[in-house]
Fold this sequence. Notes:
- By secondary structure, the protein is α/β, with parallel strands linked by helices.
- It has one domain (5-298): TIM Barrel (Alpha-Beta Barrel), CATH 3.20.20.
- The chain is built from 9 helices and 11 strands.
- The protein has helices spanning 38-47, 78-90, 107-124, 141-150, 161-166, 174-180, 182-185, 222-240, 277-298; strands at 5-6, 14-20, 52-55, 69-75, 96-100, 128-131, 156-158, 188-193, 245-251, 263-265, 271-273.
- The strands form 2 sheets. It has an 8-stranded parallel β-barrel with strand order 2-3-4-5-6-7-8-9, surrounded by 5 helices. A two-stranded antiparallel ribbon has the order 10-11.
- The radius of gyration is 18 Å and the shape is globular.
- It starts with a strand and ends with a helix.
- 42% of the residues are buried.
- The mean pLDDT is 95.
Amino acid sequence: xxxxxxxxxxxxxxxxxxxxxxxxxxxxxxxxxxxxxxxxxxxxxxxxxxxxxxxxxxxxxxxxxxxxxxxxxxxxxxxxxxxxxxxxxxxxxxxxxxxxxxxxxxxxxxxxxxxxxxxxxxxxxxxxxxxxxxxxxxxxxxxxxxxxxxxxxxxxxxxxxxxxxxxxxxxxxxxxxxxxxxxxxxxxxxxxxxxxxxxxxxxxxxxxxxxxxxxxxxxxxxxxxxxxxxxxxxxxxxxxxxxxxxxxxxxxxxxxxxxxxxxxxxxxxxxxxxxxxxxxxxxxxxxxxxxxxxxxxxx
Length: 299
């Protein structure tokens, strides 16, 4: 059994939709998010269907929060792994996603870093999911698959926007690439919800999940591709998870500050984000549940 987050129940493996709290930073002025802070924020998220939150690097959990939380951090060197994982275990995180390394390490350095993360996860009894992210040791699918061969027990946080855009997954044989990525899909314990196009890291979707998004004006339908990616990852989880295991899906739609949300001039020439990222997160919530239903059907 792999060290997924486990809720201690005898339930069948399940999906829980959290929200990465950076999703709420610098939203458009017309966002459907009411701007709640403190405990009111958590309560509103629960009302809106989110089952937990992912607390980012600069934040701490609210005392008395009515929904659970997990963490996010960076581990750059093997020597950092134990103290960082210990910190998140001590504050009560359900699990931790990490950016690991810089992506320019030699292979033996990559393996030392992964080994240190796995040891810290086991020592502190905290599930740690290495994120598939640009400028880290998992920035390309070849090296990430290589990691799975050396460490079959490793678990990932799948943020596939970095592969879809950064490695332009649609350039070439899609099915061949999906088959090659199977060792990654089978080790997903967490998913960051972000949809990319081949040329942009973060693009909006519409309410009809069966329709090609209006913004998908090019030659590919990125929504169909991401549904495929997520179903494959969820299916990989279902095939190896056991009683009480939980797959967390957390929309992480970031502001233009980080060059994720695209900005366009409005009628007055003021640059505004092309979509309401909280409204998009609500759509992702339903889309993730639909994908999990499909994965269960296929399993």
